[in-house]
Amino acid sequence: MIASLAEPLEKLNGNLIVFDNGSTDGSDCVAQETWGSKSWFTLIKSSENLGFAGGANKAIKDIDAEIIVLANSDTVFLQDSLEILLNALESHPEAGIVGPKLLWPDGTLQRSLRDFPFPGRLITEHLPHFFSSKAYINQPHTGQQSVDWLVGAVMVFRKELFESCDGFDEDFFFYHEETELQYRFFLKGYSSLFVPAAEVIHVEGASARKMFGRETYLKYIQAKLKFLRKHGYRGSILLFRLFMGLLQGCRLVTGVFRPELPLRDIRYTAPYCRRAFHELFRRNRQDF
């Protein structure tokens, strides 16, 4: 990631803060040795993993800048993408967050447009054959457009707006912290703007897989439930559990009749399905 930003940072006279969120793989030492002599480079280290929200809040707190570009460590900015994103935010005062088109390492599209995770919208997302025209994730990722929320691998926003919303909610340790922030921006009247002219390669979930292994998907369930506890309407948690339980049951049955699927996707395996049902239906006093 740093190498792809070195030239535009020099050109734009910007500064890069690398927040090491309790890593143990020596990547902080490599970054310091490689880029420590650059005036635009600063390394901040945390002795523990604060989660994405906690780490981002701490890194942003003392930054003296109007515009923040928050990027995951597993991203690579393609040529001119940083400038395009900064120009887009400047040109669109109604935008709370601006984000690029995300690509897989092989250059293919990584779908990054999403609906807020309310039950009705999740149904349109997971049943594309019936609702393909409605769910953002199934829309062509071509033209510049405002959406509910963008996958937060790269987010460009104004620090003033970020602070007025009290930053990321640190109750979200992994997943949907950017969803919840963009929802609060939305409540203040700001949109999330997708700018496909800017392209960034993203190795999705690399950090989470190091921590949670193949069961990373399970963390989405609790994150969505947490979002609904904070922002959902009456009965939304029940509807979410019923729909996602039905979806997981269909995956389990499909995995039995199509044994090649569990080999490719853990969500079709029996052990994963048992864990998913447990995460969905375990009792939480906040739900009642």
What does this structure look like?
The chain has 288 residues and is α+β, with helices and mostly antiparallel strands. The chain folds into 2 domains: 2-209, Spore Coat Polysaccharide Biosynthesis Protein SpsA, Chain A; 233-287. The chain contains 13 helices and 11 strands. It has helices spanning 2-12, 27-35, 51-61, 81-91, 119-126, 128-131, 159-164, 177-187, 206-212, 218-231, 236-257, 260-264, 270-281; strands spanning 16-21, 41-46, 67-71, 75-77, 95-103, 109-110, 113-114, 145-147, 149-150, 154-158, 191-202. The strands form 3 sheets. Strands 3, 4, 5, 6, 8, 10 and 11 form a 7-stranded mixed beta sheet that branches. Helix 5 packs parallel to helix 11 and helix 11 runs antiparallel to helix 13 (270-281). The longest helix has 22 residues, at 236-257. The chain is globular, with a radius of gyration of 20 Å. The termini are far apart. The mean pLDDT is 89.
Offer a concise description of the structure.
With 288 residues, the protein is α+β, with helices and mostly antiparallel strands. It is built from 13 helices and eleven strands. The protein folds into two domains: 2-209, Spore Coat Polysaccharide Biosynthesis Protein SpsA, Chain A (Alpha-Beta Complex), CATH 3.90.550.10; 233-287.
